[in-house]
Design goal:
The structure holds 3 protein chains of 3 kinds. Chain A is α+β, with helices and mostly antiparallel strands. Chain A folds into 3 domains: 155 residues, Aldehyde Oxidoreductase, domain 4 (2-Layer Sandwich); 193 residues, Aldehyde Oxidoreductase, domain 3; 255 residues, Aldehyde oxidase/xanthine dehydrogenase, molybdopterin binding domain (Aldehyde Oxidoreductase, domain 4), CATH 3.30.365. Chain A contains 21 helices and 28 strands. Chain C is of the alpha+beta class. Helix content of chain C is 31%, strand content 15%. In chain C, strands 2-1-5-3-4 form a 5-stranded mixed β-sheet, with helices on both faces. In chain C, helix 2 crosses helix 5. Classes of the chains: A alpha+beta, B alpha+beta, C alpha+beta. Chains A and B meet through helix 4 and helix 21 of A and helix 11 of B.
Chain lengths: 791, 284, 167
């Protein structure tokens, strides 16, 4: 049964319900939580990248004031299993043990070896200095290629190799055959530097035990309370039904809180051992070592095309830096990218291989975009190089190869069915907003007059797969869980509404957007809807928030659950109005009999009548409450065109972003204000990868960019004003027509910026600048090109 | 992270402060605004037994004129320095460079004296003090002494103050009719200068009569670009300035770190010197 | 232990504290004023920004003993009888926050900025907020909000926060 609800909410820039607490400081960050008798944890971490732990003595710490207990990895080993990896991407993947506290060996700087429990955080920090550890240094493993050499030192000596897995994928015709037909073959190597996610709220965890009944509540700054509950249960042996996980206010994640961390497991183990509540809060510089990193890949990419610029084939060989251990989805991150290298382009052959490599560095895992920014970067960079090689405008080259609007739905060479898209419309709009032709003219002028500041224009036409994910596809990718999302609606007696969602927002505004969706379907005021989330007791079923999935899976589930409520209410209303269900229409929250509009019941009246249940249809369960668990039928494929203009000072190598225009197509939009905000934030992170951020290690495995003073997160003063706009091509794979937006800006923007820099410098002979494009790297690239030109 | 424990005194006057420092020896740290010291404590890179908080000692804050010089109290905050009318009028270079230090909140607490004593070659103000030919007045058990800026910076994060000496004021000659520019090159607004160039230029008849150039982050201490200064004498056009600026890195030994190589720093010193001098001379 | 007397958001507190206690930990752990969060350990992020004697400071880089005798205002002390300040309203109305962790510091820094420069340009707002990092918004809406608050401060305050903005 379909009701044509009057849409008053979806599409509106509703101000956020979340804000009132946040602008007044009435927040509940995990570190704010305190309970009587709370003890504080501090972790002692390895100062070395790789070493054997010869001896560890925590007892001197016990003599420090305020210290209640201290444990080494061995002390806790019995109660703690290995931290989980949920994505064994191949059958023969090498999966090393990952104890939450290292026992015999440390494998990256920051690997924890002991934990102190004290009465306050100052005492805990002090006591760390009393713990005695003898390390026997082992060789660090830093370089991805060197790590794969025959005689390379091993990160996990018991495994006999630093190769975690090899994941091959081929589609279409045989690549080598297709390559023979090509007029032009370009080969490039791109590097994805390691990034540190830097959610503004550092991680924190509080565990409160109810020792008598063996129950535990875990408060954690996590994106994944539901997954964490299952996983902590398996790691610690506390039965799942005895664990409650709460994600209170969570200050950003960007993938870094999509993880099951050792500190969470240790906190639970210590709370269980001592029967006391415990808290741990990470410091920023500690987090740089202990919270997973993102990216970290070497990409060898080859593209084959005709002289006219028609793509024939694409070959990608990745080396992906796993870091020291395989964490929750570490091995799967590059695999998420595997399907995106062909991007929006048609071609005949695609060959991909990814090799996962262990190094003695902090483990990598999901960071905003997770695999897809890397893929988009490589294909969009080499498309620009191909355009230059063929003497074509980079936009024109893309036009000649992209999937045309009338070709949708289109199954890409990688086997994804793109349900909808309009690359022409987004690109045309972006070019107009950008003033493309005028900027090209200025670019020529500057070159002609020998300006020391050159102008460059970068293009990035991206799509991405998000809205993770159809469970069957996840099965085929060997992911250990499903990709559904749950929602339930509670109609309260007074007609107010509680939406219970399995998504776990940490800045995305779900409370507001889900209210809009539910209000429309139920015909109730926006203000009458509350959204419950982030607590496995209150919202027991969920798959949490990551991969731009929340709206397309979780929001769609809310929509469906609300429709079920209306269906139930219709039965009650028909009964009360003594009419047939088919004779009722439902509009704006009111059931009325067709033809006699005075015979009406509001949904609030129906809710109260169902509450009393004095007069409901025979045999009907006396409730309007409904739930829906939605397993998406497809991924979501947002797309768009991003254009960046940079001014590069050829004397200093300094890059200034002159203008940035993006036109994104994220399907229908629930709240344009929130969507725009997601795009802005995504752009900032993508631009930051292009220009500023890098986790730098030295040869010994020390993290050189070890504090926020060294790892350059850009401020308002470092970023430009963005021009953002949208086209709207509804998705056909979900009832709302929406597409994911959380990662799009990050995915698209990095290549736009680097393409612009290289475009500016191409007249000087520069063909690439490694990220982040620091002034020195730009200057060195110019110098090298000039030397080459002179030779 | 959390600072290690320390004893703490907050002397009411200079004598008391000097006595406290003298008693504690090497294990004391002076706390002024704390904007350099507190991050060191929090990262546990410093473990003082005693912290001597001089923040409330009277008479160490503010700017006055005396004998044709500006006298700036060591506890004058960056915020006060950059807005002070006397500083802006007579030592515009200092005001301009101070406005680039860290960020507004840090500038509210951080002090000119603290920045100089911290002696970080990447800090903006040591090079400015050199260029301005400032004098630093210290008080110790033996009384007051005046140290020219050129003799104040001993090594990386090391001044020539004795452990029981306190910097109390900075004396800056007024430079009427001199043009100035602080060219700071950094990767993001908040980060330290990769290289900075503090230029003061006096022009006569359209030519550079005299130039004073301080270099930030071109060695273990702030430095003067003396070769370039000399070559600038008489420079009458942009080309002559550019030629002279090519000498800006002579005698420097810039460090290698994650943000730049010595070679690139030397290059920057030359480019920024050219730009700073052109701007200071009004030739840009 | 050192005895201090600090007025925070209008209430005067007397306490004995360890000299090394950071002001932000004093606010959070001793006074329970958890509206001011901690985001880093190098005074880069600005999440902990509060006002001390009329000027913004990073409360992670001030010792509690240094605040002895001072008047401190945190984000929790801004609203009067439930009425938000123009900046709080503007942050809400212009979607200048997502996760909200940087917001207290950002608002306190913006307040300082507007006190110094009541009618800033967008560029001046960006420069003035250089010491406060946000990872969610890309800053664009923060700049908009500060500019709007600057305008609003000149105009009489509206009766109630607006319910919607036009996209």
């Amino acid at each position: 049964m379909t009701d044509q609800a009057v849409e008053r909410e979806v599409g509106r820039a509703r101000l956020r319900k979340e804000d009132a607490r946040l602008v007044t400081g009435q927040t509940m960050w995990t570190d704010n939580i305190t309970v009587p008798g709370l003890l504080h944890l501090a972790f002692l971490r390895s100062p070395m990248a790789h070493a054997r732990v010869e001896r560890i003595d925590v007892s001197p710490a016990l003599r420090r004031p305020g210290v209640v207990a201290a444990f080494s990895g061995r002390d806790l080993a019995d109660g703690l299993g290995s931290l989980p990896c949920a994505w064994p991407v191949t059958e023969d993947m090498v999966l090393p043990a990952h104890p939450p506290l290292a026992v015999d060996e440390v494998r990256h700087a920051g690997d924890p070896v002991a934990v102190v429990v004290a009465r306050d955080r100052y005492a805990a920090a002090d006591a760390l200095e009393a713990i005695e550890v003898d390390y026997e240094p082992l060789p660090p493993v830093m370089d991805l290629e060197a790590a794969l050499a025959e005689d390379a030192p091993l990160v996990h000596s018991d495994k006999g190799t630093n190769r975690a897995y090899v994941w091959p994928f081929e589609a279409g015709e045989d690549y080598e055959t297709v390559r023979q037909r090509a007029d032009v073959v370009l080969t490039r190597r791109y590097e994805q530097q390691r990034l540190i996610p830097n959610a503004m709220e550092p991680r924190a965890v509080v565990v409160t035990p109810l020792a008598a009944s063996g129950e535990y509540t875990v408060y954690s700054a996590t994106q994944i309370p539901h997954i964490l509950r299952v996983m902590l249960s398996t790691v610690t042996g506390v039965p799942e039904h005895k664990l409650r996980v709460v994600a209170p206010d969570v200050g950003g994640g960007f993938g870094s809180k999509l993880q099951v961390y050792g500190e969470e497991a240790v906190a639970l183990a210590v709370a269980r051992k001592l029967g006391r509540p415990v808290k741990w809060t990470e410091s920023r510089s500690e987090g740089y070592l202990a919270t997973h990193h993102g990216r970290g890949m070497i990409q060898d990419i080859e593209i084959a095309a005709t002289r006219e610029g028609k793509l024939l084939g694409l070959k990608v060989d990745l080396l992906a830096d796993m870091g020291a251990y395989l964490m929750l989805v570490t091995p799967g991150v590059p695999i998420l990218g595997a399907f995106m290298y062909p991007a929006i382009y048609k071609m005949d052959a695609y060959a991909f291989t990814c090799t996962g490599v262990f190094t003695t560095k902090t483990p990598t895992d999901a960071y905003r975009g997770a695999g897809r920014p890397e893929a988009t970067y490589a294909i969009e960079r080499i498309m620009d190089e191909l355009a230059a090689e063929l003497g074509l405008d980079p936009v024109e080259l893309r036009r000649r190869n992209w999937i045309r609007h009338e070709e949708f739905p289109y199954t890409s060479i990688a086997g994804l069915t793109y349900d909808s898209g309009n690359y022409e419309a987004a690109t045309d709009k972006a070019l107009a907003l950008f003033g493309y032709d005028a900027l090209r003219a200025e670019q020529r002028e500057r070159i002609e007059r020998g300006d020391r500041v050159l102008l460059g224009i970068g293009v990035s036409t991206y799509t991405e797969m998000c809205g993770l994910a159809p469970s069957r596809v996840l099965r085929d990718l060997r992911y250990s869980a499903g990709g559904w999302e749950a929602a339930s609606i509670r109609m309260l007696p007074t007609g107010k509404v509680e939406v219970v969602t399995g998504t776990s927002p940490h800045g995305q505004g779900h409370v507001t957007s889900w209210s809009q969706i539910a209000a429309d379907v139920l015909g109730v005021p926006f203000e009458d809807v509350e959204v419950v989330h982030g607590d496995t007791q209150a919202a027991p079923q969920g798959m949490d928030t990551y991969g731009s999935r929340s709206l397309v899976v979780g929001g769609a589930a809310v929509h469906r659950a609300a429709q079920k409520v209306v269906d139930k209410a219709r039965k009650v209303a028909a009964h009360l109005l003594e009419a047939g269900e088919d004779d009722l229409e439902f509009k704006g929250g009111v059931f009325s009999v067709k033809g006699s509009p005075e015979a009406r019941k509001t949904i609030q009246e129906v809710a109260f009548a169902t509450f009393t249940s004095h007069d409901v249809p025979d045999g009907m369960e006396p409730t309007l409450n409904a739930e829906h668990v939605l397993d998406p039928e497809n991924f979501s494929y947002p797309h768009g065109t991003h254009l960046c203009a940079v001014e590069v000072d050829t004397e200093t190598g300094h890059t200034r972003i002159r203008s940035y225009v993006c036109v994104d197509d994220v399907g229908r939009v629930v709240n344009p204000m929130i969507v725009e905000g997601q795009v802005h934030g995504g752009l900032a992170q993508g631009i930051a990868q292009a220009l500023y951020e890098e986790a730098v290690y030295d040869a010994e495995g020390n993290l050189v960019s070890g504090t926020m003073a060294d790892y350059l997160v850009p401020s308002a003063a470092d970023l430009p004003e963005f021009v953002t706009d949208r086209t709207e091509t509804p998705a056909t794979s979900n009832p709302l027509g929406v597409k994911g937006v959380g990662e799009a800006g990050t995915i698209a923007s990095t290549p736009a910026v680097v393409n612009a820099i290289v475009d500016a410098l191409r007249p000087l002979g520069v063909r690439d600048v490694r990220m982040p494009c620091t002034p020195e790297r730009v200057w060195q690239a110019i110098r090298a090109a000039r030397k080459e030109a002179a030779a | 992270m959390i600072p290690p424990a320390f004893d703490y005194v907050r002397p009411a006057g200079l004598d008391e402060a000097v006595r406290a420092l003298a008693d504690a020896g090497e294990d004391a740290k002076v706390l002024a605004g704390g904007q350099s010291l507190l991050p060191l404590l929090r990262l546990r890179l410093a473990f003082p037994d005693l912290v001597v908080d001089i923040g409330r000692i009277p008479g160490l804050r503010g700017v006055r004129e005396e004998d044709g010089r500006l006298v700036i109290g060591a506890l004058t905050t960056h915020h006060e320095v950059m807005r002070d009318p006397l500083v802006r009028r007579h030592a515009g270079l200092l005001a301009q460079a101070t406005a680039t230090v860290a960020d507004p909140a840090v500038r509210h607490r951080g002090t000119l004296g603290g920045s100089l004593v911290h002696a970080d070659p990447a800090g903006d103000l040591p090079a400015v003090a050199l260029a301005l030919d400032a004098e630093l007045v210290a008080v110790g058990p033996g009384g007051r002494r005046t140290i020219p800026a050129g003799a104040f910076f001993a090594d990386y994060l090391q001044s020539t103050l004795a452990p029981d000496e306190l910097l109390v004021e900075i004396r800056v000659p007024k430079r009427e009719g001199w043009g100035f520019r602080y060219e700071k090159f950094h990767r993001v607004a908040q980060s330290w200068a990769m290289v900075g160039v503090a230029a003061l230029v006096r022009r006569e008849n359209g030519h550079v009569a005299e130039a004073r150039i301080g270099l930030t982050n071109m060695g273990a201490t702030p430095l003067r670009a003396t070769a370039a200064e000399e070559a600038l004498g008489g420079a009458g056009d942009a080309e002559a300035v550019a030629r002279a600026a090519r000498l800006a890195a002579e005698g420097t030994r810039p460090s290698q770190d994650a943000s730049a190589s010595p070679e690139y720093r030397a290059h920057l010193a030359r480019v920024l010197t050219e730009r700073a001098v052109l701007a200071a001379a009004g030739m840009g | 232990m050192t005895h201090i007397s600090v007025t925070v958001d209008g209430t005067t507190y007397e306490d004995d504290v360890e000299p090394r206690l950071l002001l932000v930990h004093y606010l959070r752990d001793r006074l329970g004023l958890t509206g001011t969060p901690v985001g880093c350990d190098t005074s880069n992020c600005g999440a902990c920004t509060v006002e001390m004697d009329g000027a913004s400071v990073k409360s992670c880089t001030v010792l509690a003993v240094q605040a002895d005798g001072s008047e401190v205002t945190t984000v929790q002390g801004l609203a009067r009888d439930g009425a938000w300040t123009p900046l709080q309203r503007a942050f809400h109305e212009h979607h200048a926050l997502q996760c909200g962790y940087c917001t207290p510091g950002m608002i306190m820094a913006a307040r300082d900025l507007l006190r110094e420069n009541p009618h800033p340009t967008a560029e001046e707002v960006r420069a003035g907020l250089e010491g406060n990092l946000c990872r969610c918004t890309g800053y664009q809406n923060i700049v908009r909000a500060v500019l709007a608050a600057a305008e609003q401060s000149a105009a009489p305050a509206p009766a109630a926060p607006a319910q919607e903005v036009t996209a």
